[in-house]
Amino acid sequence: MSEPIQDLSQSQLARLRGGVRCQVLTKDDPQYESSRHVWNGMIDRRPSVVVRAVSIADVMHTVRFARAEGLAASVKGGGHSVAGKAVADGAMMIDLSLMHSVQIDPSRRSALAQGGATWGEFDRECETLGLVTTGGVISSTGVCGLTLGGGIGWLMGKHGLSCDNVISADLVNAEGNHVSVSPERNEELFWAIRGGGGNFGIVTALEFRLHELLSVHGGIILYPRSSAVSLLRRYRDLTANAPDDLTAYAALLIGHGNPMVAIALCHSGPEADGAAVCAQFQLSSAPVADMVGRKRYTEIQTMLDFTAPAGLHYYFKCPFLRELSDEAITAIIAHSENLPTEQSQVVIEHMHGAASRMPVEQTAFGLRRVHYSINIMPAWSDPSLADKCLAWAQSFASVLSAFGASDAYVNYLGDEGPSMVKASYGANYARLAALKRKFDPDNFFRFNQNIPPAD
Are residues 206 and 226 in the same domain? Predict the structure, then answer.
């Protein structure tokens, strides 16, 4: 939905600034340019104003002001969404990035993360007490944004998704009121925000259940691309019976100009078990590099950061396959021989264990099953390469449809449209649309993978 550019008048700006204790940036302010940018460099949108909230009160006032003035508003947490929904042309942007504290309660084994916190910040705080929860695999990802869409990560087999570990939340609703949600308070909203994205309010804090974990066994094994068939078959066979303690990714990429195939591993069980399980991924031929061993969890959480630097242009197509047949593996490798840039990659992600066993109706996240996500991820810096990169990804995804590729993970969607959003929620979509009608009938929160209110 495109919004008309609507600069605020001086009197509007004065009223907005008069009700908040934070920066309100317009295009004339030096910090406006850096504030409007998000992780995906392909996103180049200009909000009418950026409100850099530092408190729930700032968020409440800004929502109420926007509603009173008839202004559209987007919300920025970590700003890591590939679709760049955090920023919209002509809309106010409510930026939570300055609200990034993480508070640990060791007696309750819980952590409270503000809406702008990243997983890197979260994990560092938890590590001091030997505690963890499921987070993303890129440490600059926002805690709340990832969790609201579900939250796939290294510990999902053992502890479920990020959203499965949410205990409570604070949010600002479509009327600009503060609401606390938990299993005992506002239960419908508590259900909806655990997978339903930003459709139901601005989440200013999430409280998570934590788990004890001092170290893991894992890392990256790199092989030349000539080993791709053998390694991906090994990956398929081992993940088919993967223990809950193990999460494994496979990737086809280019390293230092050379085509590579890789396995990235994390085993959160006993050290001896982890070493034995991870060793099974080694082929008889020597790897280019074997970086697997005992590591701190924060090392695992940051080891893939180099693959996703902020500012590159990104585009995702991420269809799901129920199984990796030999034919599907052959097709994946064939299309990966033509990566459009050296920064592009194809990552295979395995959903299993506790994350797949949760009943579908338990949370808004509707894709509870064992499957593989084939993450086709072109990346480029030269804007003139955009058409080439998008065409490659779309053609690749189309080929996978012959192998039963279906639906997608809402956090990986770009602008595929309402049908893919609906498919991402499966059986839960109707309930989400009904709750949207109840809690946001005007669809004020629409700059997201949007769930329109039910008719």
Answer: no
